[in-house]
UniProtKB/TrEMBL annotation:
It catalyses: GTP + H2O = GDP + phosphate + H(+). This is Signal recognition particle receptor FtsY. Its EC number is 3.6.5.4. Part of the signal recognition particle protein translocation system, which is composed of SRP and FtsY. Belongs to the GTP-binding SRP family. FtsY subfamily. Keywords: Cell membrane, Cytoplasm, GTP-binding, Hydrolase, Membrane, Nucleotide-binding, Receptor. The lineage of its organism: Bacteria, Pseudomonadati, Bacteroidota, Flavobacteriia, Flavobacteriales.
Length: 297
């Protein structure tokens, strides 16, 4: 798996050092393993959970060889990753499928929207973008560029207009034109939590005036290369609104891919997509088995 090269080589390298010259998993190996997981940005709570589980298995089986450690780690990590469903709802009543995209500026939100539009278009679905981050001129401009690049329409208003009004217009235009997927960009200003919560709640409420089921999904975009910051952002956004899925970006060029494991475990929200580059096609559907395998082989 090319996009995860750095995480993988760094993890495997540290793991092999932790077990070098040892034939069985003992307290020292477990200590080293704990270090490996924490330094791979899995997060403290999830690391402790994994170590506890391995300790239990050592206690139960009396002896655990270091060659078996890989297999057991793989199983334990896979069991911590939430399952996800990739199909969009094919219930016609629930058309259009509305994805409200949230996240802090700079994490790759706009890029992820462009990539998602590409993905859906390639599946033969029609898409419309809604520029509901009306706070930053650059946000609307960037989304506009993606709209032209991937040839999907965009609904926008002038700077500073009501984000909920843009979202309303976008969903209404989708209904009128029988569009399959609506991608709504939102502003991610974390410094004012109450405002953030109010803004996201209002966008939802107003979209529901057009289609009761909206949004089908609230996708939180996190920058995987920021490690513990991504945890903090997940905490704040899940407190502000009901997040249903995650996209973790910039996993190319970082060794911090372990965040995917910790965040999925701590927030019980499935990682649905991972970003592995800047191009329109650099988005992968997250498959936990493929992800775990790519860590170890
Ligand atoms: P936004 O402010 O959250 O909308 O962030 P942008 O979508 O504008 O992205 C910020 C920067 O991150 C841009 O330079 C993007 O090209 C870059 N970026 C986004 N996703 C990825 C990714 O998966 N990998 C890499 N390497 N860069 C990315």
């Amino acid at each position: 798996d090319e996009g995860l090269e750095k995480t993988k080589s760094s993890f495997l390298n540290k793991l092999s050092k932790a077990v070098a010259g040892k034939s069985k998993v003992d307290a020292a190996v477990l200590d080293d393993l704990e270090e490996v997981l924490i330094s791979s940005d899995v997060g403290v709570a999830t690391t402790i959970k994994i170590i506890d589980r391995i300790e239990d298995r050592v206690a139960k089986d009396k002896y655990l060889g270091t060659e078996e450690l890989n297999k057991i780690l793989r199983e334990e990590i896979a069991s911590l990753l939430a399952e996800n469903e990739h199909k969009l709802d094919d219930d016609d009543e629930k058309k259009p499928y509305v994805i409200m995209v949230v996240g802090v500026n700079g994490v790759g939100k706009t890029t992820t929207i462009g990539k998602l539009a590409t993905l859906f278009k390639n599946q033969g679905l029609s898409v419309v973008l809604g520029a509901a981050d009306t706070f930053r001129a650059a946000a609307v401009e960037q989304l506009d560029i993606w709209s032209k690049r991937v040839e999907v329409p965009i609904v926008k208003q002038k700077m500073g207009s009501d984000p909920a009004s843009v979202a309303y217009d976008t969903v209404q235009s989708a209904v009128k034109k029988n569009v399959d997927v609506v991608l709504i960009d939102t502003a991610g200003r974390l410094h004012n939590k109450v405002n953030l919560m109010n803004e996201l709640t209002k966008i939802k409420r107003v979209m529901q005036k057009v289609v009761k089921h909206a949004p089908n999904e609230v996708l939180l975009v996190l920058d995987g290369s920021t490690g513990q910051n991504a945890f903090e952002q997940a905490k704040q956004f899940t407190a502000a609104t009901e997040v249903t899925s995650l996209a973790v970006t910039k996993l190319d060029g970082t060794a911090k891919g372990g965040v995917v494991i910790g965040i999925s475990d701590q927030f019980k929200v499935p990682v649905k997509y991972i970003g592995i580059g800047e191009k329109a096609t650099d988005l992968q559907l997250f498959d936990k088995q493929v992800f775990v395998d790519s860590f170890f082989s």
